[in-house]
Q: What sequence folds into this?
């Protein structure tokens, strides 16, 4: 399904689709012409019924749509117009930025309007996350069009969902950088411009992440050259590596693992869900994106295994369903998971009961439990779900599990990726340390 042609000021990010009733032929013909605002609101209400919003939430949408009705009436229009709806949001934005409109009302207006635009454009509705205003969007239509084309090219090329999302983020940051410097066309770009962007963005990322940033930037500059957007190849400005590779992998100890799991309140629905998520990362080493995308059909109860296509590598991964992991998932499915038609294992705890957002992965969830447990809270210590995945690798390595086996468990596409975990095996590294016998330094040499 194509992306709806929404005014950029609506600034939404689509995450996951939920089935809605497709319009019949008569409605489709009506949508081709002009659909009245009243009819559009009625059809949109029917489309969001599967989301199971509370009466309070539906009442808020009615409140926002009533404001939209008044706005259309004031402009002598009874037929829905994406342009006019965009102007409605623009004016609400101005009031919000001037302090005349509260944040919750501005967010409500944006969300309610987006629902109408989606149904008007596609005859269906997706549950959406609204990006924080002013922090995500590209302003210039020229760059927006290039961005949309580039993202579609990434998807067609067959990149994994995580790679597409990250490369798209790099392109978006690049465009915002260019807009800040009043660059109007990619045809103006020089090698120096690309180099300066790398210098600026490196201040926000770890060296290990910068390698992926550079890969994404290299992908975009090649796309720009192939499509004639730039007169020359700008990849020459992008280094093949960035600084020194980090050799110390963030992990948690067995004691810290106990504290982390004990920090989860397993008597609640959310706690049951989060406990199962943590175990999937700790015991099986699944990436956060694969945990979010885990489907009910991926769990093979008869063979006590989990079989998935990894989002990052697009390769199949089969891992054993360990007893404690399986019990935690069963507890969540029976006693914690809201009734939902979603095919995904883990869903939101509040309506709409759809799968968790892939934006940001599970970082906030894991980081929050780490904070509650007092794990990795010193300044500069990295935290999040990847620490749990690293910890599994460290435990396997300490148990003298061969690197190829660890690579298979973690689903690495490149076996050399597993070698980075050698730095976590302090016990065996200790045996590699060289003694100082024979190279003693005298007190005179130190004075």
A:
């Amino acid at each position: 399904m194509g992306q709806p042609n929404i005014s950029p000021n609506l600034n939404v990010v689509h995450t996951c689709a939920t089935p809605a009733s497709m319009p019949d032929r008569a409605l489709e013909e009506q949508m081709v012409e002009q659909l009245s605002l009243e009819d559009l609101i009625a059809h949109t209400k029917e489309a969001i019924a599967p989301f199971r919003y509370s009466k309070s939430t539906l009442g808020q949408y009615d409140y926002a749509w009533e404001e939209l009705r008044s706005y259309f009436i004031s402009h002598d229009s009874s037929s829905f117009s994406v342009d006019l709806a965009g102007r409605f949001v623009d004016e609400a934005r101005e009031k919000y930025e001037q302090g005349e409109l509260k944040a919750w009302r501005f967010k409500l207006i944006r969300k309610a309007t987006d629902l109408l635009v989606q149904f008007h454009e596609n005859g269906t509705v997706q549950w959406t996350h609204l990006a924080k205003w002013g922090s995500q969007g590209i302003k210039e239509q020229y760059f927006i069009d290039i961005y949309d084309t580039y993202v579609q090219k990434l998807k067609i090329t067959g990149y994994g969902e995580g790679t597409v999302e990250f490369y798209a983020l790099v392109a978006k940051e690049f465009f915002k950088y260019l807009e800040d410097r009043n660059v109007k066309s990619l045809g103006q770009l020089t090698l120096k411009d690309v180099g300066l962007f790398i210098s600026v963005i490196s201040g926000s990322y770890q060296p290990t992440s910068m390698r992926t940033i550079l890969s994404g930037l290299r992908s975009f500059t090649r796309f720009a050259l192939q499509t004639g957007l730039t007169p020359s190849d700008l990849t020459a400005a992008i280094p093949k590596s960035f600084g020194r590779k980090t050799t110390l992998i963030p992990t948690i100890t067995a004691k810290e693992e106990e504290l982390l799991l004990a920090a989860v309140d397993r008597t609640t629905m959310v706690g049951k869900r989060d406990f199962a998520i943590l175990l999937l990362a700790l015991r099986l080493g699944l990436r956060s994106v694969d945990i979010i995308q885990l489907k009910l059909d991926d769990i093979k109860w008869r063979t006590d295994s989990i079989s998935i296509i990894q989002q990052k590598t697009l390769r199949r991964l089969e891992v054993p369903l360990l007893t404690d992991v399986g019990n935690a998932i069963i507890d969540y499915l029976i006693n914690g998971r809201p009734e939902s038609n979603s095919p995904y294992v883990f869903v939101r705890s509040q309506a709409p009961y759809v799968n968790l957002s892939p934006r940001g992965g599970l970082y906030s969830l894991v980081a929050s439990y780490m904070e509650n447990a007092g794990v990795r809270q010193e300044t500069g210590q990295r935290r999040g779900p990847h620490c749990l995945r690293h910890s599994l690798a460290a435990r396997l390595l300490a148990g003298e599990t061969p690197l190829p086996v660890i690579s298979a468990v973690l689903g690495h596409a490149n076996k050399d990726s597993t070698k980075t975990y050698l730095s976590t095996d302090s016990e065996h590294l200790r045996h590699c340390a060289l003694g100082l016998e024979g190279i003693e330094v005298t007190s005179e040499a130190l004075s």
